[in-house]
Design a protein that fits this description.
single chain; about 90 residues; alpha+beta; 434 Repressor (Amino-terminal Domain); 5 helices; about 65% helix; globular
Length: about 90
Amino acid sequence: MSDVFKAVKGLINRSGMSAWNVAHKAGCSEATIYNWMTGRVTEPHLPTLLKVAAVFGKAIELTDGELRMADTPASVAEKVNRAREVVGYWRRWQ
């Protein structure tokens, strides 16, 4: 099992979304996501993997012959905005 696939499975687990929600947003079948999570599939089709990663604001890159996950500019901007909110709340309550 590739590291990228493990990372995507981790994203799905941490998201708290059901297999149906992830599949609906990615445009694939619920059975596909369920098979990933139960271990019936160890290497997914790349187009499906790309779609599911995009649901979480991630991109899959090919670097030095290996796949790796990277943040998209939109997901980086969202993280910065969330960090600003946390800092703002923290400063307000001090």
